[in-house]
Amino acid sequence: MNAVEFPVATRIVRGPEEYRAGGGAQEFSVELSNTTAQPCLNIHPVVVLAGQGRAIQPDRVRLEFFDGAARMWRTVTIENTDQGEAVGAFGAGSGGFAGLSLPAGGTFSVRVRLAFPDRTTTPDTVVANAAVVQRRGADGDWVGESNDYRFAIVAPEPTGRPSESTAEPEAARPRTPGDGSGEDGTARREAHELAATGTRPWHSVGMATAGGVLLAGAVVLLMLRRRSR
């Protein structure tokens, strides 16, 4: 399937070129655009990290996304596939997050923070991309896939020199339209509360659920489907 056939156009924007092992979190965004005439509810981005050695360890990755409706950062649970990719679904391990809602023709930008806080993380060249799943009860549809975002994991600062995080404190970070915060974000969230479309023209993905969140098994199955295209 060609990426242009997906109903949710997806791209990663504003990503830094380097992350330092043992360093602080840095921010990028996942932009989602509903290209259809129907609203899309229960949308869950899935970030995939693939290093050159296919050996990124989940416990050495810290991934968070900003839930504008709850006005809080949520931690993403990271799992490994059998090919050594590190995979995190927005909603897995994040109780209370029911997914994103996109009105017909609407665009929404999700802020994401990524870090490799363990100083022993091996320097690597990484390709990241974001798949998008629309959850439907015990099943889900694969409805979007982003561009590749390439970055390097570099060696830690020498001992004795503290690493500096480029992530600003939440109170100091300027608000921007579409990030889920402030009056514009409130109005946007209210506009997103629309009825779900009943059509299912996209790839279906079997999905185990518990407590209303995605589980890692669904993400691994998604990755298998992606590799078999």
Q: In short, what is this structure?
A:
It is built from 2 helices and 16 strands. Helices cover 10% and strands 41% of the residues. Residues 166-202 and 206-216 have low confidence and may be disordered.
Topology, pairings included?
Elements: E1 8-13, E2 18-20, E3 26-34, E4 40-51, E5 62-67, E6 72-75, E7 78-80, E8 86-89, E9 100-102, E10 107-115, E11 124-136, E12 139-145, E13 149-154, H1 182-192, E14 203-206, E15 209-210, E16 213-214, H2 216-227
Parallel strand pairs: 2-13
Antiparallel strand pairs: 1-3, 3-10, 4-8, 4-9, 4-11, 5-6, 5-10, 7-8, 11-12, 11-13, 12-14, 15-16
Descriptive tags:
mainly beta; LPXTG cell wall anchor domain-containing protein; membrane; transmembrane helix; transmembrane; 2 helices; Immunoglobulin-like; 229 residues
